[in-house]
## 1
Amino acid sequence: MEFVNSQMLKQQQQQHFHVLVVDDNVIDRKLLERLLRDSSCKAATFLDSGVKALKYLGLLDDDIHNASSTSPESLQQNGINVNLIMTDYCMPGMSGYDLLKRIKQQGSSWKDVPVVIMSSENIPSRISMCLEGGAEEFLLKPLQLSDLKKLQPHFLKPFDHFSEQDSADRSIASHNHTNNNDKNNSFNKTKAMSPEHGFKLQFASTIVTTILRFWNSL
C-alpha cells in the first residue's frame, strides 16, 4: 500500500513539473512538446526568444523594479512554477548561452533552476563553455526520448523533496503526539491517585504528630 501511494505521489509530482522551453524553431518546439508529453511531463511553456524568456522570468533590465513580483515565490503563489529551463543555443537576438548567463548571474532568483542547452552543432568548445557556465546538460538536436530520460532525475527532484519534508513533518508530529500522550498519561495517573493518596498522607501525618506530642509530654 505504501509503495502504491509513493507511485501515485511521484506521478502527481511529475504532472505538476513545469518546463520552460526557449527555441525559435517551431518544428523543434513541437518535437520537444511531444517528447515531454511522452516522458510524463505535462506542464510546459514554450517561448521563441531569449528576451521573452527573460521577461517571463522577470529578469529584463526594464523589469528590475518588478523583480519581486515575478520571483519564484510569487509565481508559485499564482500557480506558476519553473523547475527546468531548456533553451536552444543558436537564436536571433540572444543566444542560449547569453540566456544561461543571465539566469545564473549573481542575485538572480532563478540561478538554482537547472538549465539545459540544446544545439544541432556538436562543437566541443561550445559544449564546455556552456557546462562551465552552469548548464546542467548539453543535448544535441534532434532530441530523442532517450535524451529526455537523462533529465528524469530533475523531474523527480520535487517528489524527493516532498517525500523528505513529508517524512520530517510526520516524525515531528509523531514526536509531539508521543509527548502529549506522556503528559496526558502522567496527569491522568496523578489525577486518579490523588484523593486516596492525599487521604493516606494526611492520616499518617496526624499519627506522627500525635506520637511526637505524647513523647514530648513525658
## 2
Amino acid sequence: MTETLTLHTYFRSSCSARLRIALQLKSLPYSSIPINLLKNEHHDPQNTTLNPSASVPTLIIQPPDPTQPPTIIPQSLAALEYLEETHPEAYPLLPPSTDPISRATVRTLANIIACDVQPVTNMRILKRVAPLGVDRTAWSKELVEDGFRAYEEIVAKTAGVYSVGDGITLADVCLLPAVWGAERVGVEVGEFPTIMRVRGNLEGVEAVRRAHWRNQEDTPEEFRVGFEGGGGGQ
C-alpha cells in the first residue's frame, strides 16, 4: 500500500497549479477537491480546519495505515518541498545535492515568484487595496513586472531549456502559473524573453498541460473552449 494524496485546489489559483504541475510531473496519483474562491468556500469551516489561512492549496497525505492521522500541508512551497523530499527519484525538481549553488538559485527564483509576484495578484490582497483608491489592476501589474524583471535578470544567466539548466525545477513549477496570472492583469510577458522561452518549453510538456488551469474538473466550460490540453487531473 502507498500513501493517498488529496489536493484542495481552485482551477485559477496559481499556488494550486504549482502542486498540480509537480504531482503530474512526478506521476503521483491524487484526488482533487475543488474549493471555489468566488463562492468564498475557502472560508468554510471544512477548509479552514485544514488550512487556517483560509486559502488553497492544501495537500493532505494519508499514510497507508488508515489508523494513522494524515499529514496536512497548507502552504504550496512547503508541500512542494515535501514531495521532493519524499519522492526525489520521481522527476527530481531540485538539482542534485552535489550542486548546492544551483539548488540555491532554484529556491531564489521560486521565492521571487512566491514572495514578490504572487501575493500582489492574490484576490484577498486586491480586495484590501481597492478601498485605498488605487487602480488595483495597474498596481498589481507594476509589482508583477518588478518581480519578473528580477527573475529575468537571473535566468538570463542560468537558463537552458528551463530556468536553471535543462531540467524542470521548482522554479519553473512556480513560474508558469505566475505567467498565466500575470497575463490576466495585462503584463506583456513578451518583454521578458527568457521567461517567454522557458514558458513555451514548459507548455510543451504533456504533464504540465494536464495541470493547466483550463484543464481542471472545476474549470468552467467557457474557459475550456479552444484549449488543446491533455486529459484532466486524477
## 3
Amino acid sequence: MSRNYELFPDDDNGNVLWQMIEDGNDLTEPHEFEFTIVFKTQEQLEKCALHLLHQEQKVSFFQEDQHTDGSDLWVLNIHVTMIPEYEDIQDLEEWFSRIAQDFNGEYDGWGCMSYLYEYEDDEHLES
C-alpha cells in the first residue's frame, strides 16, 4: 500500500497516522486518543479540567514526579474516542492549545493505544 499524502501529510500527525496503518491498525474503527496539557500548579490544572468537563470532555490527571530543579508538573489528559482522521486531530490540537493558553498551561501532544489482534487459525496449527 502506498501512502496518500493528501490523507496523511508529511508532518508529525500524518507520519504517526501512517505508522499506525503500517503497524496494522484499522483507522476506520474508533480509537481512544489522549491529548495532554501540562501545568505548573494543581490549581491551574483543576480550573482547566473543570472547564473541559463543562465541555463534556473525559479527563484524567496526575502529578508528575518532582524534577531535579524542585518543580512539579501536573499532567491533564483529555480522552477522545474517535475515528482517526488527520483534519480532526489537527482541529483538536488547535482547540486544546488555545485552552492550554487560557489556563496558563502548555499543550504537550497526543497519543493513541494501538489495537492489534492476532488470530490463531486452528487449521494451520500443527499437532
